[in-house]
Amino acid sequence: MTATLTTRISPARLRGLFPGVIACAVVAAAAGFLGEHYGAPVLLYALLLGLAMNFLSEQGPCRPGIEFCAKAVLRVGVALLGLRITLSQVAALGWGPVLLVLISLTLTIGLSMWVAKRLGFQALFGLLTGGATAICGASAALALSAALPPHPLKERATLFTVIGVSALSTFAMVAYPMVVKLLGLDPRSAGIFLGATIHDVAQVVGAGYSISTETGDAATLVKLLRVAMLLPVILLAASITRARSAAEGSSTGPRPPLLPGFAVGFAVLVAINSTGWVPHALQSAGNEASRWCLVASMAGIGMKTQLKELVTVGLKPVLLMVGETVFLATLTLLLMPRLM
């Protein structure tokens, strides 16, 4: 164990990672600039810029660092998401929104896995897209991808999911405020609907506060509750990975942990954050570090992917993700009168 750890942090190892890590950091900074000035999701910009720099991941000095960002840095970013949530925030919502999120998440992911199989894909692809739709967009897609078993097409599926969920989230941010006004929802109900249906946190905040402060506050809290659901869904993905490892006869090697280390880190940080002892400045720093880790990892994933592979996914995955989004919004509207 000690020897392995020493190898990982040795100066030679750091020198090998440096070019690729710097390349991902530069792409992340460029994506952050574009997102700040042009409004589109930063993760989407990081993905597109990474795809444009795919040549760096071929045999060369940048490859080890790009692999490191696409895997290790991703896990750190997911773990730090725990600093966004406290148990008191969840309790303040009451049982209605909690049941709404639990029911909609379970049904959306379950239906996605069933439909994915009917369309000729693995059920795990439905878990990936359904989890991204039902939980927290691109961040959930990256977290679930890290927990799912290895597969030759996993990175392509992850990239497609990130692109699809980012595009649909941006559309929802613009369209859903008009929907709630058309339906005549009061500010709190409007916030619950927006928080329970829009994919990414940033788009939820943008849509909610564009209506009113009360709507924005309600939308943000419900969205954070959905983010908290990331842990049990990661546990589900890790359990599937563990079962597959055992079924494939890999008992000669170490079995994957029931709960990945980054998921444990996520849970620990939620617990620590819930004590109220974490200063606001530290929470903000952790959230910012999480965001940049996810952006850098998205850049690395983009660099590793051949664009020609991405454009061959066909129409079925697109229909799957659009269907998941429509189902989630419709189900939420049907459940709200009964649970609120």
UniProtKB/TrEMBL annotation:
Coiled coil: none annotated. Pfam families: Cons_hypoth698. It is found in: Cell membrane. One of its GO terms (cellular component) is plasma membrane. Keywords: Cell membrane, Membrane, Transmembrane, Transmembrane helix. Its main location: membrane. The chain crosses the membrane at residues 12-32, 38-56, 93-116, 123-147, 159-179, 191-212, 218-238, 258-278, 318-336. It comes from the Bacteria. It is a multi-pass membrane protein. Belongs to the UPF0324 family. This is Putative integral membrane protein (TIGR00698 family). It comes from Roseateles saccharophilus.
